[in-house]
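PT: before anyone asks, these are the final sequences, not the draft ones from last week. 224 residues across everything. Please model them as a single complex and drop the result in this thread when it's through.
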Amino acid sequence: EPEVTQTPSHQVTQMGQEVILRCVPISNHLYFYWYRQILGQKVEFLVSFYNNEISEKSEIFDDQFSVERPDGSNFTLKIRSTKLEDSAMYFCASTRGGDTQYFGPGTRLTVL
Amino acid sequence: GEDVEQSLFLSVREGDSSVINCTYTDSSSTYLYWYKQEPGAGLQLLTYIFSNMDMKQDQRLTVLLNKKDKHLSLRIADTQTGDSAIYFCAEKGGAGSYQLTFGKGTKLSVIP
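LR: through. Structure below.
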């Protein structure tokens, strides 16, 4: 069964550094998403992406964040200058028609 | 903003039924979902229900939706130790929104 994959599984970075989290959505899916889960808190929506542009974003997704689909398979989340409070589990999801979202295993980001 | 609430913990004996409850506030929800998260793992889609349905059964899982009360439940029949995990309720809003709003998750502990 096709799956969403994410790399790396764990990323450790210094405050102020840029990080890029990578996702490979399911191959025939058209809508892509990033969510995050701070330890012990709810899973929060960050951004959705369709037809090579952002279709929806939350208040969390400020100018420090950007997303890109650089080729036909990858979907990336970039955090330009990481803060301590960016430490969280980041989940990528994809869906074909905007209904049922399938999630990847997540990337744990630790900002020191 | 929209909100989804769940009780945080549930403990059941192996072989009994588990019922996990969820309430939500968005009256324009179109789909409601149950995801399972095992320790250190991602979000696994268990089942979902469209908002014009009131029940859906899938093997050991039964989802009940009371749209009037905005109440969703997940019943797991013959609960096994492998069902121990955190269960997240999530709702997808009305037309034009693809983001999911999650509850905090219910940690199900199955006692052998």
